[in-house]
Amino acid sequence: MHTHLMIETPRPAPHSPADLPCACTTLRKASRAVARLYEGHLAEAGLSATQFAILRALERNGTSNLRPLAAELVMDRTSLYRAVAPLERDGLVATEADGGDARARRASLTEAGRERIAKALPHWRAAQHTFIEGFGADDYAGFIGQLRHAVALLDAPAGRAGVAIADATGAGNG
To answer: Which H or E run contains 135?
Structure first.
């Protein structure tokens, strides 16, 4: 009688990273789809989703240095400066030098900016309603919580994962 020793090749666990969909690809697809929804609605008010987010952040924060505003919006400073330029050109935002550093800029919402937010809000609410209804109202809060957790985990200072604290305050709404 022969005894055969069977050596099994280790198989990846059913939920190993190699067996799961790529987080980056999946999130990019979702981001593009959600952005198209909001962009379509906000275009009715003459704003992009990014412009609307900037205006809402200035509405919440008041006059703000653009560096912390970029961090709040999870944007690099150069991209924020480029996004603010047309808002300033259209009179929705005013900018000025911040202190002695001519490179540092502060932005504030103008009255025209407040009026544009008021015009855009019904369109944003329509996009929000469409998304929540399609996604499922019961799952939406948990979904947003998971996204905030991912941002806090991965967008830590200097790109070091795990250093940032999760934004549980809802400060990033709209």
So the answer is: helix 111-135
